[in-house]
């Protein structure tokens, strides 16, 4: 049976310690990335929404890189939004710049009322390449 292995980016932000969770867990050839938010190094939210979304994707890419993955390895995405109707256009613009064109990963978008002070969160499952 595969053992879980914590993935810890070198530039880990304060939220991992403050809320006691791993950035990601590797289990076999799968990587389960915890929800990434637009947090600064000290764990505080980026106040400008578009920059918060961009920073969440940057934090995600840092975790993926630490595990030997890229966005091309992502097979499933879940995003959480505090105001989906008003945020969706901004999120899609950032997402399109970062993820690019097809084939797209699975994606589920969920409207929520609370994200610990943030307005956007993204979590993913990726398949780890054999070389990693």
Explain how this protein is built.
By secondary structure, the chain is an alpha+beta fold. 30% of the residues lie in helices and 29% in strands. It is built from three helices and six strands; from the N terminus they run E-H-E-E-H-E-H-E-E. The protein has helices at residues 14-18, 49-66, 84-99, and strands at residues 4-7, 24-27, 30-37, 74-81, 106-111, 120-127. It has a six-stranded mixed beta sheet with strand order 1-2-3-6-4-5, covered by helices on one side. Helix 2 packs across helix 3. The radius of gyration is 14 Å and the shape is globular. The model has no long low-confidence stretch (mean pLDDT 91).
Instruction: Give the helix/strand class.
Output: alpha+beta
Roughly what fraction of the amino acids lie in strands?
25-35%
- Count every beta strand, where a strand is a DSSP E run of 2 or more residues: 6
- Give the helix proportion (percent range): 25-40%
Widest β-sheet, arrangement of strands: 1-2-3-6-4-5
Query: Helix segment count?
Result: 3
From the alpha-carbon coordinates, what is the Rg to the nearest angstrom?
Answer: 14 Å
The SSE string, one letter per element, is EHEEHEHEE
Shape: globular
Q: Between the first and last Cα atoms, what is the distance in angstroms?
A: 19 Å
Mean pLDDT: 91
* Largest sheet report: 6 strands, mixed
Q: Poorly predicted ranges (pLDDT <50, ≥5 residues)? A: none
Draw up the topology in text:
Layout: E1 4-7, H1 14-18, E2 24-27, E3 30-37, H2 49-66, E4 74-81, H3 84-99, E5 106-111, E6 120-127
Parallel strand pairs: 4-5
Antiparallel strand pairs: 1-2, 2-3, 3-6, 4-6
Helix pairs in contact: 2-3
């Amino acid at each position: 049976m595969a053992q879980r292995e914590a993935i810890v980016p070198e530039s880990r932000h304060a939220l991992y310690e403050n809320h006691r969770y791993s950035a990601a867990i590797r289990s076999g050839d799968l990587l389960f990335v915890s929800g990434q938010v637009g947090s600064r190094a000290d764990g505080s939210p980026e106040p400008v929404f578009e920059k918060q979304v961009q920073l969440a994707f940057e934090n995600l890419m840092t975790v993926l890189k630490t595990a030997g993955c890229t966005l091309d390895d992502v097979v499933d995405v879940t995003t959480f939004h505090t105001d989906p109707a008003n945020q969706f256009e901004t999120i899609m613009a950032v997402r399109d710049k970062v993820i690019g064109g097809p084939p797209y990963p699975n994606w589920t978008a969920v409207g929520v009322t609370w994200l610990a002070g943030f307005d956007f969160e993204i979590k993913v499952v990726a398949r780890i390449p054999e070389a990693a």
